[in-house]
Amino acid sequence: MNIKLTSYGGVQEVTGSCHLLNLGGLRILVDCGLFQGGKENYLKNWDDFPFDPQNIDAVILTHAHLDHCGRLPLLYQRGYRGPVYCTPPTSELAKIILNDAHKIMAEKAQRQKLNPLYKEASLKKLYQNLKPINYYQSKQLTPDISFQFYNAGHILGAAIVEIKTASRTIVFSGDIGGQNMPLVKDIDYLKDADYIICESTYGDRRHEGKAERDQKLIEAVKRNTLKNGVLLISIFALERTQDVLKVLNDYYESHLDFKTPVYLDSPMAISATKVYRQNTAYLNPAAQDQLRIDADIFSFPHLKLAKNVKQSKLINQAPSPKIIIAGSGMMEGGRILHHLARYAPDAKNKILFMGYQVPGTFGHRLLNGAFDFDYYGKKVNIKAAIDKIDGFSSHGDQNELLKWLGSFAKPKQIILAHGDLEVMKVFVDKIKEKLGHQALINRRQETLELK
Ligand SMILES: [Zn+2]
């Protein structure tokens, strides 16, 4: 069987993941994500697909992050009618993420006088075609082609995809985390693969100790209370929010005299947390143990949810100290911007980032020392402290990526995707040094024959 791989996104970049695998004529698209970060990248989303969506036989979605699922509605709008296979939690989370993205994009398109990327009807078509397949269940696509999902240790529902033909095994890492994540199960280490398409977001660096992450967050929370300040936590609605809620849950429930209110000001994060609550079977054993004594590990005294705009505005009236958790995680929009405009000019406040900031985003600029920003035509000075905690990252660092790649016995070829070029170059050298494999960096629209 002739096997060809062509990548159209997530190529020497961390967004827009999209890989087309042609297995002897059966065309499988793995992910169809949104390009993010900066205007130029964002406008790429309106480009034609470099393939005919009607010719795709099946889509396999690794997880619900927008840079992996964000262009799926557009794929339907432009003619795709087939199934989108994903795990059950991904199916639920993708709907929340895509509904929210559609709302934000429609508003943005109106402001910028662009056509919306896709119509609401295309979302509905996609939702009807989401086909949940559980982890470890082999799904036959043709008599000699099947695939199976494994735990990726990244976010709830995230999967590594193993695609098998009679003679070849091809593994897509999707986005992978590692071990000892606060909530999701550890990553699965696979042994057999001929070709591995591996993400490399953090291929050039190591995260600060995961062991310290909870402590760092609690220290920031305590210090904020002592300073009578506002701690503004910029957050991704998926996984990071639930990780942080769980850490706060553990602290607040064991320190009942600690009364600083925590506001979760993100309808999307509130909805996503519900999916976590309903899918506890997919959480790791430690979280499941805890659930036996604490029925709700995402809820604790002094946590207040702001579901609507009125509740969000009321947060302003609450006296300090207080903690506000809001999105978007890269400060590209969302309620966090209103809070930032209000609280950034005061030096006793703190803005805390909990994850990777794509270059070109406002979050990246802030983290790299921006002095001010424009808020609806008004200049806002930034005096608040700015900090980040990396240990919550749902992406594995260099060591974790190497460990995962190292578990394969005899790969024919490792192909790197989902990373900045400079990072990938460092990672290629590291793979050679530690594992003795010559990894390849994928290039846009270059077709590789997987012999
Ligand atoms: Zn992801």
Care to describe what's here?
It is a single chain. This protein is an alpha/beta fold. The chain has two domains: 3-206 and 394-449, Ribonuclease Z/Hydroxyacylglutathione hydrolase-like (Metallo-beta-lactamase, Chain A), CATH 3.60.15; 210-388, Rossmann fold. It contains 14 helices and 22 strands. The strands form four sheets. Strands 6-5-4-3-2-1-22 form a seven-stranded mixed beta sheet. A seven-stranded mixed beta sheet has the order 7-8-9-10-11-20-21, covered by helices on one side. It is globular, with a radius of gyration of 22 Å. The protein binds zinc ion. The site of zinc ion has 4 residues, from loops. Zinc ion binds at residues 63, 65, 154, 175.
Feature tags:
451 residues, alpha/beta, Metallo-beta-lactamase, Chain A, Rossmann fold, 2 domains, seven-stranded mixed beta sheet, 14 helices, 22 strands, 21% strand, globular, binds zinc ion
CATH topology of the largest domain: Metallo-beta-lactamase, Chain A
* Number of helices, where a helix is a run of at least 4 consecutive DSSP H or I residues: 14
Bound molecules: zinc ion
What spatial form do the alpha-carbon principal axes imply? globular
List the SSEs and their pairings.
Blueprint: E1 3-9, E2 18-23, E3 26-30, H1 39-43, E4 58-60, H2 66-69, H3 72-77, E5 84-86, H4 88-111, H5 120-128, E6 130-132, E7 139-142, E8 145-151, E9 159-164, E10 169-172, E11 195-199, H6 210-226, E12 230-234, H7 240-254, E13 262-265, H8 267-278, H9 285-293, E14 303-305, H10 309-317, E15 322-326, H11 336-343, E16 350-353, H12 362-367, E17 372-375, E18 378-381, E19 385-388, H13 398-406, E20 413-417, H14 421-435, E21 440-441, E22 447-449
Parallel strand pairs: 3-4, 4-5, 5-6, 10-11, 11-20, 12-15, 12-16, 13-14, 13-15, 16-19, 20-21
Antiparallel strand pairs: 1-2, 1-22, 2-3, 7-8, 8-9, 9-10, 17-18
Helix pairs in contact: 4-8, 13-14
Bound molecules: zinc ion.
